[in-house]
Amino acid sequence: MSGPIRVVLAEDQAMVLGAFASLLDLQPDVEVVATAADGDEAFAAVLEHRPDVLLTDIEMPGRTGLDLAAELNERGAVTRVLIVTMFARSGYLRRAMDAGVAGYLLKDAPIGELVAALRRVHAGERVVAPELAVAAFDTANPLTDRERELLREVAEGAGNAVIAARLHLAEGTVRNYLSAAMAKLNARNRSEAAKLARERGWL
Predict the structure, then answer these.
(1) Which one is predicted more confidently, 74 or 95?
(2) 51 and 92, same structural domain?
(3) pTM of the model
(4) Are residues 97 and 189 in the same domain?
(5) Which one of 1, 52, 137, 176 is most buried, counting C-beta atoms within 10 A?
(6) Which residue has the higher pLDDT, 129 or 48?
(7) In the listed set 137, 153, 183, which residue is the last one of a domain according to the structure?
(8) Which domain does 74 fall in, by range?
């Protein structure tokens, strides 16, 4: 008989992390081998423990859940990634699929559904919450990588001059990229463009 499903849990909200760990520990075929409060801790824990599944949130300090999935995918890691998040956004789901994520569920799913998804992911299946499946066919992200990079800077409060210096671009070039992004998103200004892109999961 094979051993339990070895899991690393990554979640920056301590109460949620503790609840997930306690609930999974009640399952006879699941072993939580490590927990992490941010993405960098999670990455280190995966490298150390080589779990079967990394169960992670998306938005955390350090690496995001999507960053973790992409990096592990690039390394050819055997650990499969199951994202459990509050964000029912088509942009996030698309990026998760592109990063090789094996499962994508919402935090308000019943614990039985989460455990079932964990077992299916461990068995090699891909699991997406039914209410999100349609989102995979939503409008694709219209932004280029450079436009996304600049909008992330805007979202962090950086002005055009600061962005230009950080990214080694001319200020006029920064304005042109941001104008293009604003037009694609039908935004009135750079801040609204950054807000819309983040809400849609494109940053």
Answers:
(1) 74
(2) yes
(3) 0.67
(4) no
(5) 52
(6) 48
(7) 137
(8) 5-137
